[in-house]
Design brief:
Length: 410
């Protein structure tokens, strides 16, 4: 994955990029980003809508600003809503929230906006959170003991408390899944999902497009089991109004809205029940979508595919790409260009030859020859000079020896 595909990172220098551990791009236009460095500092940049950058002021910035409240907190991951609001969790399971809060989606007990990260307590006190997921204006948190907590907007039942009243603080989703160990969560724009340790899927919230996969278009105020007979699901991911699920055998299932072909069925008709798709791709190892849009992606061990709303076009069946990572699909084709999950540092290790050469330019650690011009040292590489210049090719293949002599140039 090349960082340059994300325009919000266009002005970052290479030394800063080399120190990145985790990065997240979000916002209604993909104009905001949060970065965690290997030294455990946190930075943000972008337009700072609703104070979503987590800094003291509401100013925007093209270059990284330090988020003091999150530095040295051992940040593990992020999720974000459409306000936007940002939820992050740490190594010890603490949760911090900031940004838009008009529907109590920060879980702080009030609807007052905060642009400085605040610790989320309430029902999460004493709990270790291991995953967070955000819809447009609601939030889910998964604890280490398999419990799901929800807060925020609840006009369609997406908080799962049996009513449509907004939830100002984290409240456990106990109906139906109270005795079930949940291992994964996901959010669509106004819907919620949970995957159990036995491979079962539960959905609740808005269902006007069939995105809950329960065979109808009726909203659900409590978790409802989705019928996937004989299939063990390991992961669910959501677009604005469509849902993808991955089985332990590498099978892909989809349901919900399909006006852009985001279900990968070859047509644009909505589906209210899970349907197996992309059977000709072989074993799928991962899937991706974002509640901001209508694009879908999947990868096998060797290839990356995309479909749905791809840069304004409706692609109704999976298309093979030349990308090495699904992150590139969202950087180049998603509207808006946002990350489907935080980018991890390992994504930066696979540099192209051109980028590797750029980093090696004038680097004394890797050079094997040094020129001094007007008192300034320039580090170079004999092999590259031979390739690029006949003069140096002849010089280095002869009996020329390096020395400290000074030469006058015209």
């Amino acid at each position: 994955m090349e960082l340059k595909n994300w325009t919000v990172f266009g002005l970052l220098d290479q030394d800063f990029v080399a120190n990145i551990k985790l990065a997240c791009v979000f916002g209604n236009l993909g104009h905001e980003a949060i970065i965690v460095t290997k030294s455990d500092d946190v930075f943000s940049l972008g337009s700072n809508s609703a104070g979503c950058l987590g800094v003291e002021s509401l100013t925007s910035s093209l270059t990284p600003m330090k988020v003091e409240a999150l530095c040295q907190k051992a940040i593990k991951g992020f999720s974000y809503g459409a306000g936007p609001h940002v939820i992050t969790f740490t190594q010890d399971g603490s949760v911090y929230a900031f940004g838009h809060n008009g529907f109590c989606q920060l879980g702080l007990g009030t609807s007052c906006q905060t642009h400085v990260p605040a610790l989320v307590c309430g029902g999460l006190t004493g709990k270790k959170v291991i995953e967070v997921a955000c819809g447009s204006h609601h939030t889910l948190a998964l604890t280490s003991d398999g419990e799901v907590y929800a807060f925020g907007q609840n006009n369609s039942g997406q908080v799962g408390c049996g009513s449509t009243a907004n939830q100002p603080t984290p409240r456990r989703v106990s109906a139906v899944i109270g005795s079930t160990k949940i291992v994964s969560i996901a959010c669509g724009q106004t819907s919620s999902f949970a995957v159990s340790d036995t491979g079962e899927v539960y959905g609740w919230g808005y269902n006007g497009n069939g995105q809950l996969g329960i065979g109808n278009t009726v909203n659900q105020y409590n978790p409802t089991k989705i019928m996937l007979f004989g299939v063990f699901i390991t992961k669910v991911t959501c677009g604005t109004a469509h849902t993808l699920a991955l089985s332990d055998e590498g099978g892909l299932y989809s349901w919900g809205a399909n006006s852009y072909g985001q279900l990968g069925t070859g047509h644009k008709s909505n589906l209210t029940s899970p349907t197996r798709v992309a059977t000709d791709l072989g074993r799928i190892v991962d899937i991706a979508a974002v509640h901001y849009g209508h694009i879908s992606a999947a990868e096998t061990h060797t290839k990356v595919y995309m479909w749905g709303q791809c840069r304004g076009q409706a692609v109704v069946s999976p298309v093979e790409t030349l990308f090495k990572s699904m992150h590139d699909v969202f950087a180049c084709y998603s509207t808006p260009p946002v990350t489907y999950k935080p980018i991890e540092a390992k994504q930066y290790d696979d540099l192209s030859i051109v980028d590797a050469l750029k980093l090696a330019f004038d680097d004394p650690k890797t050079s094997d020859i040094q020129f001094v011009v007007e008192g300034k040292a320039i580090n170079a590489h004999k092999a590259i000079l031979r390739i690029r210049s006949d003069h140096f090719r002849c010089m280095f293949t002869g009996k020329w020896e390096e020395n400290q002599e000074e030469y006058e140039t015209n």
